[in-house]
Design goal:
The complex is a heterodimer of chains A (271) and B (292).
Chain A: H1 7-16, E1 21-32, E2 35-46, E3 50-54, H2 61-67, E4 78-86, E5 89-90, H3 98-104, E6 105-108, H4 119-129, H5 137-150, H6 154-157, H7 170-179, E7 188-192, H8 200-213, E8 218-222, H9 226-232, E9 235-240, E10 243-249, H10 250-255, H11 260-266
Helix pairs in contact in A: 7-8
Chain B: H1 9-47, H2 53-57, E1 60-61, E2 66-67, H3 70-101, H4 106-120, H5 123-137, H6 144-168, H7 172-180, H8 185-214, H9 217-220, H10 242-252, H11 259-289
Antiparallel strand pairs in B: 1-2
Classes of the chains: A alpha/beta (271), B mainly alpha (292).
């Protein structure tokens, strides 16, 4: 699990044309009550790369993201039609267990939301949910250390693992929120505007971290920051009014947008 | 020529209005505090001379005109304890269900409406209900159990509302974080929601206790006795209680020294104040520990 090992592999993936697909939606429609938020969305997210979802507020990008771990359903009065496949399996199939889905699909939120317990317990929380029986103290220590190292937080917090996580800076909190997903070894990380509550320096740090995690995880990131999508994603998808307008390699999308709507959006004519 | 930025006539008149309203609102607030101070002042002034170990720990003597209030004090504590045994688990559990599980539908709305109405039912009506249900139908007779159950039903809305509010004050982000990691509702409640709501829940319970200690009407038909020369030995027996004792020595017994009812009232309000003080201290202690 070294972060920078897949540079060449990724290029292959990008050019191969038929890489492994981590998330696929098929004619996905979604309603909040009577309001339809997604219209026939077909979307393939390739494994091991960073895909960004852009679009103006209310275009359905967060809704789409939240369909991939089915956390939308907690609101109640919502309806989903169509298919969402994660690693080739329909996660809306009747026999699917939500806990299993969520162990494979981790989520990072807009505002860092570490639990108001110690840093150590934050890391071990998800691990505990998905592990039967007790983990030995030394294994726990190893899990905490490796997760925190992976998000480049270990050196900052190794002396205060028992302090309340909510005392950390926002940047550290957001890194911790990513770290706590890792012990369960998810395939997909969903990130809903993970940097929008952070200052520029912290944003850079978290973006770098996301970039480092690419290769080991499939990362789908919602952002309203086009510069961020441009510098920190391999592929980019543009949504408008609940529809998928286009989805291409990031550089292509920004240099030669395929539709007038995309062009107008990335040039800032609306947003 | 007036200086630049100097107040105009309109500005000045606005400031006068501002001061008037401010003064009015402040005096209303002051009037709120005044009765409390007067009541406490009179109680302490007239009741304090009565307070002694003998007063607290002896039986009443000579037609309740002398002696202490021990059985009433103890009886109030009995009723509060038995009341808590029922009101705490039912109230907290119902609040958890309503806050964390209940879907927003007509049934939930009906339950919420019922809780509000339950809180508005006059205590004497609760007393009659207690007589019908616990004393007669369940056959508990006039007893500590029947009295405590009656008060428990009466004070349940207090526990439910306080608990539900403190549960809902826990940020939704914590729940989403847990759910997104695959935690079930109960795992989320147990690991995150309850630990962060506990100070509010305890405050609600302590308020419930002080309310229970003070209630008179619901217990006078269901379990509190005018006078008993002995202590109850089980929850199926009657007991004396401070609140009813205060009523009795104030209005029902001749030739009671003037200070005696004040002494009883001071003890009663002392219990309530001590409970409230504990709740405030506890709350600020837990507040200091929690951070988000």
């Amino acid at each position: 699990m070294t972060p920078s090992n897949t540079e060449t592999g990724l290029d292959e993936m990008r050019t191969d044309g038929d890489p492994h697909i981590a998330v696929r939606t098929d004619k996905l429609n979604f309603w909040y009550g009577d309001f339809q938020a997604l219209f026939d969305v077909d979307f393939d997210v390739k494994a091991g790369i960073v895909t960004s979802l852009i679009g103006p507020s209310g275009c359905g990008k967060s809704t789409l993201l939240r369909c991939v771990n089915r956390i939308n359903e907690r609101i109640g009065n919502v309806r989903t039609e169509g298919k969402v496949e994660v690693l080739g399996h329909d996660i809306y199939a009747p026999e699917v267990d939500l806990t299993q889905v969520r162990s494979q699909v981790g989520m990072v939120f807009q505002r860092p939301n570490p639990l108001p317990i110690s840093i150590r317990k934050n890391i071990l929380f998800a691990h505990g949910l998905h592990t039967q029986g007790k983990t030995s103290k030394s294994d726990e220590e190893a899990i905490v250390e490796s997760a925190l190292r992976e998000v480049l937080l270990w050196d900052d917090v190794k002396d205060r693992l028992d302090r309340v996580a909510t005392d950390l800076s926002l940047e550290q909190q957001q890194k911790l929120c990513i770290a706590r997903l890792l012990p369960v070894k998810p395939a997909v990380l969903l990130m809903d505007e993970p940097c929008s509550a952070l200052d520029p320096k912290a944003t850079t740090a978290v973006e770098e971290l996301i970039w480092n995690l690419r290769g080991d995880y499939t990362i789908l990131i919602v952002t309203h920051n086009m510069a961020q999508a441009r510098r920190a994603s391999d592929e980019c998808a543009f949504m408008l009014l609940g529809k998928m307008v286009e989805h291409r390699r990031t550089e292509d999308l920004f240099l030669t947008p395929g539709s007038q709507q995309t062009a107008d959006y990335i040039e800032g004519r609306y947003g | 020529m007036t200086a630049r930025f100097a107040a105009t006539e309109l500005n000045l008149s606005n400031y006068r209005t501002e001061r008037r309203y401010r003064l009015m609102l402040f005096s209303m607030t002051a009037m709120l505090v005044l009765p409390v101070l007067i009541i406490l002042g009179i109680l302490v002034l007239k009741g304090a001379p009565m307070i002694s170990w003998e007063f607290l720990f002896e039986f009443p003597r000579r037609g309740m005109t002398e002696g202490g209030i021990y059985p009433a004090l103890l009886g109030t504590i009995f009723i509060v304890v038995v009341d808590l045994i029922f009101a705490m688990p039912i109230g907290v559990a119902a609040a958890i269900y309503l806050s964390e599980y209940a879907p927003d539908n007509w049934l939930t709305r009906t339950i919420n409406l019922a809780i509000i109405n339950l809180a508005g039912v006059p205590s004497i009506v609760h007393a009659l209900f207690g007589v019908g249900a616990f004393v007669i139908f369940f056959g508990f007779g006039t007893s500590i159990l029947a009295a405590a159950l009656t008060v428990a039903i009466m004070t349940l809305p207090l526990v439910i509302v306080a608990t539900r509010e403190s549960l809902q004050a826990v940020p939704q982000a914590f729940r989403e974080a847990c759910w997104s990691m695959g935690a079930s509702r109960w795992q989320t409640i147990f690991a995150v929601v309850l630990p962060n709501a506990i100070s509010g829940i305890l405050t609600g319970l302590i308020l419930e206790v002080s309310r229970t200690a003070g209630e008179t009407a619901p217990i006078m038909f269901t379990g509190a006795a005018f006078f008993l020369p002995f202590l109850p030995e089980s929850v199926f027996e009657q007991t004396m209680a401070l609140s009813l004792h205060l009523y009795v020595v104030s209005t029902q017994v001749p030739e009671v020294p003037e200070a005696l009812p004040y002494g009883v009232a001071l003890v009663l309000i002392g219990i309530v104040l001590i409970m409230n003080a504990i709740s405030i201290v506890f709350r600020s202690y837990l507040r200091g520990k929690k951070k988000w």
